[in-house]
Design a protein that fits this description.
- The chain is of the alpha+beta class.
- Helices cover about 30% and strands about 25% of the residues.
- The chain has 2 helices and 4 strands, in the order H-E-H-E-E-E.
- A 4-stranded mixed beta sheet has the order 1-4-3-2, with helices on one face.
- The radius of gyration is 19 Å and the shape is elongated.
- About 15% of the residues are buried.
């Protein structure tokens, strides 16, 4: 017996659900990669490279370009000196933070 072909609406909805799952998984992977959380900051030689590096990272959801909403000094786990770049994707509008560790001053 031949299977009845799926309706266009059914195929579209299945595609949308798969894209949503992929987007969610890529966001989780971003948070587990260097810079995705205060526990895994990216080593930066100075605060001046934070924004350049942050805008160069593509959005994990849509591969769009990030805009830096705010660049703030924060204290991370164990009193580490961190910089948090709060980002917004220019294409899809999703928001996230990227963390950097700066060297200690003498």
């Amino acid at each position: 017996m031949a299977q009845k072909p799926k309706r266009a609406r059914t195929e579209r909805r299945e595609g949308e659900r798969a894209a949503s799952r992929l987007s969610r998984d890529r966001e989780k992977l971003f948070r587990l990669s260097p810079g995705g959380s205060p526990e895994l900051p990216i080593e930066a030689p100075s605060a001046s490279v934070v924004e350049t590096h942050a805008t160069g990272m593509p959005c994990p959801r849509c591969d769009g370009q990030h805009a830096v909403e705010e660049h703030a000094a924060v204290t991370g786990p164990h009193g580490a000196r961190l910089r948090e770049a709060r980002l917004r994707c220019r294409r899809c509008g999703s928001q996230r933070s990227l963390f950097f560790r700066l060297p200690l001053l003498n």
